[in-house]
Specification:
This is Probable cobyric acid synthase. Keywords: Cobalamin biosynthesis, Glutamine amidotransferase. Catalyzes amidations at positions B, D, E, and G on adenosylcobyrinic A,C-diamide. NH(2) groups are provided by glutamine, and one molecule of ATP is hydrogenolyzed for each amidation. Pathway: Cofactor biosynthesis; adenosylcobalamin biosynthesis. One of its GO terms (molecular function) is catalytic activity. By secondary structure, the protein is an alpha/beta fold. The protein folds into 2 domains: about 240 residues, Rossmann fold; about 200 residues, Rossmann fold, CATH 3.40.50. The strands form 6 sheets. It has a 7-stranded mixed beta sheet. α1 packs across α13 and α5 runs parallel beside α7. The longest helix is centred in the N-terminal third of the chain and has 25 residues. It is globular.
Length: about 500
């Protein structure tokens, strides 16, 4: 019989995705057939995988990452319901990998929740037929009493999967013991009885300082503390933009203090209000000497060596936000490498037509940045597909060649307005130091990533530092869990 453990939280951003991935890799190391699952997710970071019929569909990135940690191929059954926020309280609803409709929160619960629940149960049952263990990830807080009757990712999953529950609480923000106690008190009784233990996450300092508090909370609740997880990020891709700075703030990722400025480069990324698939940039942050900085929209580009425009869930409105902030002027005067990914690719063109489909306002056409001779026409059709392209050498990628793989998730069709290099197939364009492509996961291709990094260093007039071999982030997550947490056989057989 399949055993299911639900990794739930007292709130969002407590480390559920990391613990779930770590458990998946631990079990995979020991030869256990394990699969990840999240009944309902809300994220604009998606990956393209196969559905039960062999067609392409999309799921949230956390379950894609957890599948890789489990050393299996990801499928849409691992995240059967995905909500992709579009802004103004509306989300695109994706069921079994396919976009269904755009819904507001109220209408989703009124008209689509039962359908979503059936989809989640169907997917869980298919996974259970071929897995010994399912590591399910909850969403947000399991103690939202206004949502208990329709909490698909937490309460409903615990029930239909007959799951044991591990409850995570973040101590970084303070009040962890009160949060844990209150969460346990507010959970439905039958779900509360499933809690096998709790984990304190994101702790900095001497664990001995927690001893008296742990003893007291265990005595009050009867729930054992399974361990204390130190604040040690293994570097897994983030699920949502909570991990990014706010729109008007700056933050730097991948900054290595051991590398002097003369051997490092900075890649600037505008912090779009509706950014999606920002995890496309994460492989660059692991490159020695490469810093990825998220910029306020009104930033000049004097302190960056390259610019990457990320994807957007609402390309037109984010384009207009950049233009209103004057970013287009700064970009036009920038002489370093510029790369646009998906929505960022569309922005680099001359114009976008039928723009109302990607905007909250009634736009017929909007002008792009005009750095690539292309135009995009939006339509209701959505392209969701994994692709492999033959790469033709261009200067911006240091002349690398071969094949690159990734996935496309986008509305609209982009066509050249004049003959142009298309180095990554039909869905790309390159002119001098500017490159645009629909290919998400571009920088996950090691050869291409290395070529781009070399080009950035060359444009900056610098030499890159030597690259060192590091352990995978999946194994780092597994080591973090195994050295910090005591999980009994009653919860999961490790």
């Amino acid at each position: 019989m399949t055993k299911t453990v639900l990794v739930a939280g007292t709130e969002s951003h407590v480390g559920k995705s990391t613990v779930a991935a770590g458990l998946c890799r631990l079990l995979a190391r020991r030869g256990v057939s394990v699969a990840p699952f999240k009944a309902q997710n809300m994220s604009n970071n998606a990956r393209v995988v196969v559905d039960p019929d062999g067609n392409w569909g999309e799921i949230g990135i956390s379950q894609y990452v957890q599948a890789r940690a489990a050393r299996i191929s990801a499928t849409t059954d691992m995240n059967p319901v995905l909500l992709k926020p579009r802004g103004d309280g509306e989300s695109q609803l994706v069921i079994h990998g396919k976009a269904v409709e755009n819904v507001a929160a109220g209408s989703y619960y009124e008209s689509q929740w039962e359908r979503a629940r059936r989809a989640a149960i169907e997917s869980y049952q298919r996974l259970a037929e071929r897995s010994d263990v399912i590591v399910a990830e909850g969403a947000g807080s399991i103690a939202e009493i206004n949502l208990h009757h329709r909490d698909l990712a937490n309460v409903e999953t615990a029930r239909f999967a007959d799951a044991s529950i591990i409850l995570l609480v973040n101590i970084e923000r303070g009040g962890a013991f009160a949060s844990l106690y209150g969460t346990l008190e507010l959970m439905p009784d039958d779900v509360r009885d499933r809690v096998q233990g709790a984990i304190i996450t994101k702790f900095r300092g001497d664990e001995a300082l927690l001893t008296s508090g742990i003893e007291a909370i265990e005595e009050r609740t009867g729930v054992p503390i399974l361990g204390v997880l130190p604040y040690d990020d293994p570097g897994l891709p983030a699920e949502d933009s909570v991990s990014l700075p706010q729109t008007g703030e700056r933050a730097v990722f991948g900054d290595d203090d051991d590398i002097p400025d003369c051997r490092s480069v900075t890649i600037g990324v505008p912090r779009l209000p509706r950014v999606s698939n920002f995890t496309d940039l994460e492989p660059l942050t692991n490159e020695p000497g490469v810093r990825v900085t998220y910029l306020p929209l009104d930033s000049d580009l004097s302190r960056v060596d390259a610019v990457v425009l990320p994807g957007s869930k609402n390309t037109v409105d984010d384009l207009l936000a950049l233009q209103n902030a004057g970013f287009d002027t700064h970009l036009a005067g920038f002489s370093g490498p510029i790369v646009g990914l998906c929505g960022g690719y569309q922005m680099l063109g001359e114009r976008i037509t039928n723009a109302a489909l990607e905007s909250t306002d009634d736009h017929d056409a909007v002008s792009g940045f005009g750095l690539l001779p292309i135009e995009t026409h939006f339509s209701a059709e959505k392209r969701v597909e994994r692709v492999t392209q033959t790469l033709s050498p261009v200067e911006l990628l240091s002349g690398v060649h071969g094949t690159v793989s990734g996935y496309e998730i986008h509305m609209g069709r982009t066509t050249p307005t004049q003959p142009i290099d298309q180095p990554i197939g039909e869905g790309s364009a390159a002119v001098n130091h500017v490159l645009g492509t629909y290919l998400h996961g571009l920088f996950e291709n090691e050869t291409l990533r290395a070529g781009f990094v070399r080009a950035v260093f060359r444009f900056a007039g610098k030499s890159p530092p030597e690259k060192t071999v590091v352990q995978s982030s999946y194994d780092d997550a597994a080591d973090l869990v195994s050295t910090s947490i005591q999980i009994t056989d009653e919860i999961i057989d490790l």
